[in-house]
Design goal:
By secondary structure, the chain is an alpha+beta fold. The chain folds into 2 domains: 80 residues, no CATH class; 220 residues, Bira Bifunctional Protein, Domain 2 (BirA Bifunctional Protein, domain 2). The protein contains 11 helices and 9 strands. Strands 1-4-5-9-8-7-6 form a 7-stranded mixed beta sheet, sandwiched between helices. A two-stranded antiparallel sheet has the order 2-3. Strand 6 and strand 7 form a beta hairpin. It is elongated and about 120 Å long. The N and C termini lie far apart (77 Å). The mean pLDDT is 92. Bound molecules: 3,4-dihydroxyphenylalanine. The site of 3,4-dihydroxyphenylalanine has 12 residues, from strand 8 and strand 9.
Length: 328
């Protein structure tokens, strides 16, 4: 084998020319194997070292190293700039990847539906904070210090004062504190209770509160409002039922059941509480209970959604598994 250093220049030119001509990724890889691979031309030339006269070996070795570096650098540069020299690297006619359409969570859409119906009855939407104080969550709602719902084990009290609200009834107080009557609001939102998670309990869930205050409001208005909601939301066979109960902030109070389609079959479902606003609540916010009357209600959003869509486990609503949520 010739050890003529000038012949190596020729080899280099040949290699670089071959690299230029590699038109696509496959050709580029062929070139790499052919020149830089473990059985490539460079290795073969290197073996020529053995046939060199001892005094020529250093110069030959240096030249070979320079050649190797040069080919490697050229290959790398070529790779980075994109292999193809023939034809565009981008096929602009290729169909794009499908873009997944997002959708609102099933609970958000249930809330939207509830708002929609009550808006048409003249209710506006009010919001309140999820981090509350005991005045709005209990005291102004006529729940005295000794009320069992105020136990630490039933509430998320925060270090340094405050708590996570356990009910959206807090917003009744906030609205009345800042707005003179008459009032007609609903307030959807999250509430928090330290319940152990199972199929029907979760430490966070959603309610929608309703409050109507005016002169001469009666139980008939309450019942008619809930009935109208049931019919509009669930359909013409829907109905409501009120069972006498107790809530500190209403007098009289009732549990509300609605007859709704549960996977195609009409069934009675407990969905919340309601009543006529207790005079003590009006006093707490500075309304004169001799002048103003009102009703309030609080409905469970998960209850409505789970029954309506046949969802057996509340936890599925909050795990964010798109395979589950996508069904609705
Ligand atoms: N705040 C009650 C609860 O979380 C629900 C409720 C009952 C709200 C009666 C009301 C009401 O406004 O009048 O259990």
């Amino acid at each position: 084998m010739s050890t003529d250093l000038h012949s190596i220049d020729g080899v280099e030119a040949e290699a670089l020319e071959g690299l230029q001509q590699a038109g696509d990724d496959a050709a580029l890889e062929q070139w790499r194997i052919g020149w830089l691979g473990s059985k490539g031309r460079l290795k073969e030339l290197m073996a020529g070292m053995k046939t060199c006269a001892p005094e020529e070996r250093p110069a030959f070795g240096q030249r070979m190293n320079a050649l190797k570096k040069s080919l490697e650098a050229a290959f790398k540069a070529r790779q980075e700039s994109g292999a193809a020299t023939t034809g565009p690297p981008l096929d602009v006619t290729e169909p794009g990847l499908p873009v997944g359409t997002g959708r609102r969570h099933i609970l958000a859409r249930t809330v939207d539906g509830v708002i929609d119906v009550f808006s048409r009855m003249g209710f506006t939407v009010a919001q309140g904070p999820e981090v509350e104080d005991e005045w709005h969550n209990f005291i102004a709602l006529n729940m005295p210090e000794a009320h069992p719902a105020r136990e630490p084990s039933d509430n998320f009290f925060l270090d340094g004062g405050g708590m996570l609200r356990t009910q959206t009834s807090t917003v009744q107080i906030r609205v009345m504190e800042t707005t003179p009557p008459p009032i007609r609001v609903i307030s959807p939102g999250r509430v928090y209770r330290p319940d152990t998670h199972d199929a029907t309990h979760y430490s966070m869930f959603h309610q929608v509160e309703g409050l109507w205050v005016d002169r001469g409001v009666t139980l008939v208005d309450l019942k008619a409002t809930l009935f109208h909601f049931a019919r509009t939301f669930f359909g013409p066979e829907a109905d409501i039922r009120m069972r006498p109960s107790f809530f500190p902030f209403t007098e009289p109070s009732a549990e509300v059941d609605m007859r709704m389609p549960v996977r195609g079959k009409w069934q009675w479902v407990e969905i919340g509480g309601c009543g006529m606003v207790d005079p003590n609540v009006f006093k707490a916010v500075g309304y004169d209970p001799e002048v103003w009357t009102g009703f309030a209600f609080g409905l469970g959003i998960e209850r409505i959604a789970m029954r309506k869509y046949g969802i057996p486990d509340i936890r599925w609503l909050f795990e964010n598994d798109a395979r589950f949520l996508r069904q609705f």
